[in-house]
Amino acid sequence: AAKTEERNAFRFYSPRMQADARRRIALASELRKALSESEFRLMYQPTVEMRTGRIVAVEALLRWYHPQRGLIAPGEFIPMAEKLGLIRRIDQWVLQAACEQMSAWDKAGLPPLRMAVNVSANWFGQANFVDEIRMLLESRRLAPERLMLEITEGAILRLGEEMERTLHALHSLGVGVAIDDFGTGYSSMSYLKLRAIDYLKIDQSFVAGLPDDASDGAIVESMLTLCRRLDISPIAEGIETEEQHRFLLRAGCVEGQGFLYSRPVEPDVIAQLLSPGRRQNNSHLRLVPPEAG
Ligand code: C2E
Ligand code: MG
Ligand code: MG
Ligand code: MG
């Protein structure tokens, strides 16, 4: 009886859901080839110092240019790569490519930036993770301070004791550690007591309701107080309006990122934005026109 029920239940899947399932299965097998076929590219989103509008960092964001399906967003394929055990190799590729880009900008004479790279728990949790990072930075002659690794609260939760060692090792190496999407995970805040976190990225879901939503306002202000008290540098994500920018600046947020300033863009756009002749001041919050990127 259970069998028939199962079979009948299947009929409730809409054609849409079936198409989605087919796409997922196809993508999963194609994802294995994407690395070797060089279908990945990095885009870079500027992070600005909110007070001055100056670019202080960029975040490397992965894009998959599929030969037939076109652009695929990381939100779709990263979770897939995690399940398939491919994320570690992908993250390694990303870190390598981001460091190469940093060296290229240095060689072109651009002012040094911090490079933010997202890493998943699968790799961050490996015993030799910190050694790999150290070796990569040494081989490229990059100061560890130039690199910032973004991990989510979920990743910290999954690591347990190993996490403490890894965080301290990264911290003493000088690599920046940021908690990404802060406030959206299920972990406790006890990891903050380790004093090994350098940045908190306030998730865009809390920024979205600013300045009118009282709950978002209260949450964001508390996060900023927490950062001040713990000597952590706050970065707000997903800033789309000048009103959000003003609220965050007044509340003491230090750095910001979002479509208001710039979408993720190609590396040559970053190079143009940083070129010595270009004036950087806060009279123009917008670095890149909204349609670009
Ligand atoms: P994230 O690290 O929190 O990155 C921020 C995401 O918000 C990016 O989406 C960015 O394009 C988007 N964003 C930036 N400003 C705004 C804004 O003002 N409004 C809105 N609505 N969105 C904004 P993206 O590039 O699609 O990346 C999604 C997520 O995929 C990232 O979230 C990150 O968790 C993951 N991801 C991206 N690249 C990598 C990677 O190389 N490795 C790993 N492990 N994960 C990655
Ligand atoms: Mg991130
Ligand atoms: Mg985030
Ligand atoms: Mg996110």
Molecular structure report:
The longest helix is centred in the N-terminal third of the chain and has 22 residues, at 15-36. It is globular, with a radius of gyration of 20 Å. The protein starts with a helix and ends in a 19-residue tail after the last helix. By secondary structure, it is of the alpha/beta class. Strands 1-2-4-5-6-7-8-9 form an eight-stranded mixed barrel, surrounded by five helices. It contains twelve helices and nine strands. A hairpin with a 3-residue loop joins β2 and β3. Residues 45, 61-62, 73-75, 78, 91, 94, 118-120, 150, 180-181, 204, 237-240, 257-259, 264 line the site of ligand C2E.
Sum up the structure in keywords.
293 residues, alpha/beta, 12 helices, 9 strands, 46% helix, 18% strand, binds ligand C2E, binds magnesium ion, Diguanylate cyclase (GGDEF)-like protein/PAS domain S-box-containing protein
Shape: globular
Structural class: alpha/beta
Give me the side-by-side strand order of the main sheet. Answer: 1-2-4-5-6-7-8-9
Total number of strands:
9
What fraction strand?
15-25%
The helix content, as a percent range, equals: 40-55%
Largest sheet: 8 strands, mixed, barrel
Strand-helix topology:
Elements: H1 2-10, H2 15-36, E1 40-49, E2 55-66, E3 70-72, H3 74-84, H4 87-107, E4 114-118, H5 121-124, H6 129-139, E5 147-152, H7 153-159, H8 161-173, E6 176-182, E7 199-202, H9 204-207, H10 214-230, E8 233-236, H11 242-250, E9 255-256, H12 267-274
Parallel strand pairs: 2-4, 4-5, 5-6, 6-7, 7-8, 8-9
Antiparallel strand pairs: 1-2, 1-9, 2-3
Helix pairs in contact: 2-3, 7-8
This protein binds ligand C2E and magnesium ion (3 copies).
Residues 59, 118, 150, 180 line the site of one magnesium ion.
Domain EAL: 24-278
Organism: Dyella japonica
Protein name: Diguanylate cyclase (GGDEF)-like protein/PAS domain S-box-containing protein
